Amino acid sequence: MTLGDVLPGVPPEYQALYDELDRNLATWERRLPDDDFARLPIWAAELLPANGNRGEDLLVPQAFEGCVLYLDALRRLGVQGVKVAIPYPLLDPTYPRSGEYLSFYKRIAVEVRQRGMVLLVGTGAAFADPNFSKVRVDYRAMTFAQFQEGRRRMAHRIAREVRPDYLTVGNEPTTEAGITGFAALRDPIQYAAMIRYILRDLRQGPTRIGAGTGNWESPAFVHRLAALPGLDYIDLHVYPVGPWMVARAQALAETARSGRKGLVIGEAWLYKVSGVELAWTGPAEAFRRDVFSFWSPLDQRFLGVLTRWAWAEDAEFVSFFWSKYLFAYLDYDSTTAQLPYGDLRERVDRQVVRNLWAGQVSPTGRHYQTLIAQFREK
After folding, report:
1. Topology of the domain comprising 12-376
2. 3-state DSSP call for residue 150?
3. Rounded (to 5) percent helix, strand, coil in the chain
4. For residue 166, what are the contacts with CB-CB under 8 A and spacing of at least 6?
5. d(CA 167, CA 124)
6. Rounded to two decimals, what is the model's pTM?
7. Quick one: pLDDT band at residue 132, thresholds 50, 70, 90?
8. Collapsed DSSP state (helix, strand, coil) of residue 212
9. 289 to each of 11, 121, 312, 320, 344, how far by Cα in Å?
10. How far apart are CA 262 and CA 374, in angstroms?
């Protein structure tokens, strides 16, 4: 794509969705306070090349080099921290090549610290859908008790050996339920009990420990988590921006405060699905839409609204998930319009790599850089 400020127009088939999301962001923006607040969050981004759902692709030498290249590019934007997803069962000692994965992530942690950046590790169930993960795991072959114990072993190993600044030991319980088939994860009481089990005898050192939910999930999850001893913060994932989901995010932040927990926004990005589509449109279609450059103005607006909201809510750490769009998108044309998600993902990832080597960023990346600089001046 051309890295200028003039972006292609919105295709007719997406105009209604674009307008709806724009209205939702405008409504949220109008509700933001005008005040300045004392503490600024750590502005962060997902270190996508280190995402554990890449499986054994992480274990070739070029993967680590790519992570360092990406990390340096984020740092040049002014990003102060990164979130890294290490899904179960990669670091469970019983999992094949777990020692190699552990070595990889320990090296990543060293690189992050050497750059004076903050590291948040999020751990949950690896995706089973090949669209989203290359990790081989059969949840049907294990009981919930085995799954829970494996999660506990992994969390303890991360805290002990990777030693991140923040460790989120669970998030998006209904997503995890869908991935694993464990109905217990849909029950706020049983989910909180699993988090309590993971925390048992956890030797965390200076690492802050958290757990949370998405802004589309039941508030009962956060009510239960906010009452857990040993949990330092609530980790919210913010994606849909419909009016009731924005109100839900606000209520969950208030619940965290009432439970004397810190607030972390461990993932956020503009979810490009309309209100009526939410009932039937899956993540693959939503993520397929993300790749197109005509969304950049809305992505920029989302960055602006979310950063201001997180500051007002006294969030400690704010990370944007689809950080590759800080570097490149694809243009929407007669060819790309028909491609499935997997093909689009490969194409945009190749363009991201080219732009990383060339030191180029997208308009969305420049906007995030400007936002961070403006906050630092306050």
Report:
1. TIM Barrel (3.20.20)
2. helix
3. 55, 10, 35
4. 118, 119, 120, 121, 207, 208, 209, 210, 233, 264, 317
5. 11
6. 0.95
7. confident
8. strand
9. 12, 27, 30, 17, 9
10. 24
